[in-house]
Amino acid sequence: MRFFIHKNPLFYILEYIIERIVKFVNQIRIMRTLFFKCTSLKILIGLSTIFFLRSSFLSQNISDTSNYVRKAPVRQVLESSPNYMKVNPMIGTGGHGHTYPGATSPFGMVQLSPDTRLDGWDGCSGYHNSDSIIYGFSHTHLQGTGVSDYGDILLMPCTKFTAGATSWQDRYKSRFQKDTEYAHAGYYSVFLEDQNIQVELTTTPRTGIHKYTLTEPDTLTLIIDLEHRDKLINYSIYPLDDSTIVGHRLSENWAKNQYVYFAIRFNKEFKWSDQLSEIKTVVTNKINGSISQEMEFVPVFAVDFGVITDLTVRVGLSFCDTEGAVKNLTEEAPHSDFSDYRKANEEVWEEQLKRIEVSGGDGGIDQQEIFYTALYHTFTVPNLASDVDGRYRGTDLKIHNLRPVDGFHYTVFSLWDTFRSLHPLLAWIEPGRTRDFIRSMLRMYKDGGQLPVWELASNYTGCMIGYHSIPVIADAKAWGIIGIDQNLALEAMVQAADSMHLGLESYVKYGYIPSEKESEGVSKTLEYSYDDACIAAYAESLGEIELSERFRQRSLFWRNLLNPESHFIQPKRDGAWIAGFDPTEVNFNYTEANGWQYTFFAPHDISGLIKFEGGTKERFSEMVERQFLDSSMTSGRTQVDISGLMGQYAHGNEPSHHVAYLFSYAGQQYRTVEIVNDILNKLYTSEPDGLCGNEDCGQMSAWYVLSSIGLYPVAPGSQVSAQKAQLVVGSPQFDNVIVTPAISNRSGGVRPLYISKIGEGDYVKTVNSKTRSWMSYEEILKGGPLVFEMTDSINTGFGILDGDSPSTSVSDSNFVPVPAFVAGRSFQGKYSKVRLHHLIPDACIYYKIDDGVWHKYKSAIKIKSDAELFAYAEINKVRSKEVHHSLVKIKHDWDVNYTFPYSHQYAASGLNTLVDGLKGGNEYRTGDWQGFYDSPFEATIDLGAMKSISGMSLGCIQDIRPWIWLPESVEFFTSNDGVNFTLFDKVTHDIDENNYSKIVHRFITENSIPITHARYVRVKANSTGPIPNWHLGAGNNRWTFVDEWEITFESK
Prior knowledge:
By secondary structure, the chain is an alpha+beta fold. It is 23% helix and 29% strand. Strands 1, 6, 8, 9, 10, 11, 12, 13, 14, 15 and 16 form an 11-stranded antiparallel sheet that branches. Strands 47, 48, 49, 50, 51, 52, 53 and 54 form an 8-stranded antiparallel sheet that branches.
């Protein structure tokens, strides 16, 4: 609820003065009470003196408190230190890691952490290491993502407020110094410089525990800010009893309906001060810019405690209701001894971190700090989402109940990231929790109708691609995890794969996703193919052979985008390769990547990659090597996620994560060792910017953990047999590693694995006296010793023989890739030659034109007019899917000259785009639109002779989320000599620049304009300047997208 009070700004000043008077009177009253209770007048005089020195009555400006600043203990971690002390949560809080430094419990519901940023990409976790202001401490945070959801229920203890600030956030925020921060697993502390308060934080799974210690007795006000971070939809808050406040917050950001309920309990009595207000500036007249100021109640509340020296606050959360929050609080935090909670959380983390214990290694304690912090990060996501009574909020946003045998419900599944390394790691060492993760996914299917892709707070966010809950479920089966409804799992898998959305209709129809049908078509084709391989394996394991065969064939669709001439996986448009392919270009055909970074993504069919991208293992290795040796410069659009570059390999983003291990598949395990060691040593450090990209919910750290112990899953879920599923051997970074999975009901039980090294050097000579460079899941699950014999020289005999190198493959029986057209979309002149080619040289290709008969393709086809072409390939009487290509003959020979070049990534058909008769639709990423960013759009046509022009028009699109606006106006010109141009017409529009809809608009000249005779015409789009301040891209240039420029001539 909001109240609006229209008052003069002087009212605010008066209100502030009254507030200070009331506080002053209260403090005098407290001093009086102390007088009668004190046995020594000296104590009273001392306290009163402190009070008057620190209180400034009417103008409470923040004073220099450097004398009160408490330095954090110096971080001294030894080999003998407990593992939880070796965790440094500051790693990843700088650069673009986006991690949070605060306290949490393993996979806990609560992530209690300081908030130092209100917005911005590098503030996605609420915190950045470069900041020096703390706004408060909220109870939910995302671990290393690229979105800024969460940050719920912010508390801030205050002894004073900044004078002159108009917003409460600016009034209650406090400076802090970096050397007063301290954190390890389960604990965080900081000194609030402007408040003279030491803050300590710890957690239980569902509660956050705060302890505030004042440097001296003072009045304490606790701010509860329910407006902080996400857009607030509605809220409630009220005292439940004399020690408890409850309420809720429903907010919207990336996830549209985020429900959080809370119960806050204090160890001291409080005075409820209710809702606060602040002055808001309102524009009353957009025409003349006049403004007024109003006093408005805001969702910020104050709780007063009088003069105290310390306060303990316990906060229980629930995603169901306030009753759930109270139950969680009462069950998990029944007392107010902060030290007990801290100790208990540290003990829980110590036990958790014993899943993998390391010792030795060349990097010393610094290397162990990196390792245990990485291991810690892998245990922070997914997050508990069910209450102590078993209730949870489903993806239908309704409340459901779990039985004790059902385990727990979880949220935050960033599966495009985490299926690669995090979930395989957790399936190995946390089988019980993995069972609950998968049961949670299946409940999401039952409650909401689909498996999660990127689920957050019971919301399907619609973010990222693939259906990567499937490899997680399939891989769990390979790890022997039981207690999962396998028939329901297969049903959910098929539903996800057969949902005709996000390009899947085209994927099934054509065997790939054409760029004109769906954006990011290359990435989606490849990732769908991988997931389909996992479905095929899972279905086969359950005896569903026909279903398995259908998805086996789909898993080979990635081959339909492999160009046999370039050996790259490339985008196609309308059956033809898109011209001007540049593997370094970041464009709309890929998800956060470019051609280099996706050309090796077929982990389930690496034998196919070797066969078609290299021909031999040696040539394939050379191509993989080129990715690491090529320049690190990318072209096309700027993509902040592409980071941690080594050549074109981008470790800061997930599509590259398996690539260093591909050398092993080609018999060059030593090269895998060299590249992986480089990544481990150069792209991971113990500094705040020690991650080269987003942590991405533990994926970046899981890669480090697995790689540093010398075992990595390249294709998790593509084999569900423990005998066939493989971990690729790397080079352990530590002398001794003990892997002790959590006790669970895994089939076959749990046995520790003891990894050790003998000999010197980084290269592997043998593993358990064998020259095989991979281990099966079955061998790992048996436990026991895993001895790496090391050498300091390259060992070309390790992992080279058949069976010794890892391998994945898919049978290509009854599958034939589609042929590809090599042709443009339009042509000028008498004819155009169209070529066809195929991935397999021996394939027979057949084509037809329009409704004609089928012909066997032998040589280039000569096309003289508009044509619809169709083709298919055949091998041993097995036919491929049919593909299509349209070719348009341009009826004129005009030349289009651009004053400034268009962006290569949005080139459409190139120079003829504006006059080829093809118009763009309502999606800018399908290859029909030409884009201009750093320079304006202006083009000129020589019509070849004098023409009588009666009108012109230009098509444009507006889609402001990706920074595309309609031009403010479009001007059309004519000329007789190509030098001196006369304005033909200037066309504007009345579409709001803040309209977030996708709008296609044609700028059409007036019919009343007199017919003009001219040989040259020109069009110019006038942009409206930089992106406005209210947009996330504020200050950057706007994109202008154009398509067909139509010219109407007078009929004779």
